[in-house]
Amino acid sequence: MAALGREAGADRRAAGVVPAGAGEAPKDIKMPTYIYGQSSPSLGDANLRKPMVIEIIEKKFEYLRKEKTLNIYGTVTFGTTAGFSGILANLIFRHCFKVKHDALKTYASLTTLPFLSTIVSCELLVRHALYSGNISRENCVLRSSLIGIVCGVLYPIALAFSKNGRLAVKYHTVPLPPKGRVLPYWLLLCQTEIKAMVIPLILQTALGIYHGLEHYAIFESTLEKTVHED
Are the C-beta atoms of residues 63 and 222 closer than 8 Å to each other? Predict the structure, then answer.
């Protein structure tokens, strides 16, 4: 009888018929059960989270787009005033050295180069450093004001001095300086008119301070809105 029972059990296993209770899972393992027609909880949560994530990303892009537009307007204005400072410096040195040649060439370079140098310096030294988290508010204002002084006043003065000085020597519009006293001689020729550059110096310093404060305020506002949305 026992042999017949074992043979019957073997036949049932071969046929794929397993007795009830033989393949039951252990009691300490909980098997997930779902009712027919009911969606998976994880799938439902994912469907709810997807529109929220898309909305947050769209709002972040909107904030960044507005912030970038404001930064571009401020930087272009800052560079434009540097270009006007270059025009004034060129006018002063052309008058001092009595230069009448290559007017278009000198005015084009004195307008374009200070404008571009101001924009590039603001992008690298202020905006890039600000969004890298490397500078504070005071440092941002200091960098911006120094850019206004260097790129908007000192650089145009040096550029106008060199270009018009070369033209004065080339066309002999002023007497040549004595040997050993070249620089004092040139400065003596324009010491009165050069005082007019105090106006762009004050203007560029004030605009630099305002530009730095505005950049930092926009950065803080964008950061707060982004963190709040998260």
Answer: yes
Counting every residue written for the chain, the total comes to 230
Q: Check: CB of residue 148 under 8 Å from CB of residue 211.
A: yes
pTM to 2 decimal places = 0.70
Q: Interior CA angle at 107 toward 198 and 97, to 5°?
A: 65
Identity of residue 113: L
| H or E, element range at 229 | helix 198-229
pLDDT 10s digit of each residue in the chain, 230 long?
444 444 445 454 444 444 444 444 455 445 445 444 444 445 455 555 556 656 655 555 555 555 556 578 889 999 999 999 999 999 999 999 999 999 999 999 999 999 999 999 999 999 888 878 778 999 999 999 999 999 999 999 999 999 999 999 899 998 888 887 878 888 888 988 899 999 999 999 999 999 999 989 888 877 776 655 55
Residue appearing with tokens 């550059």: 197
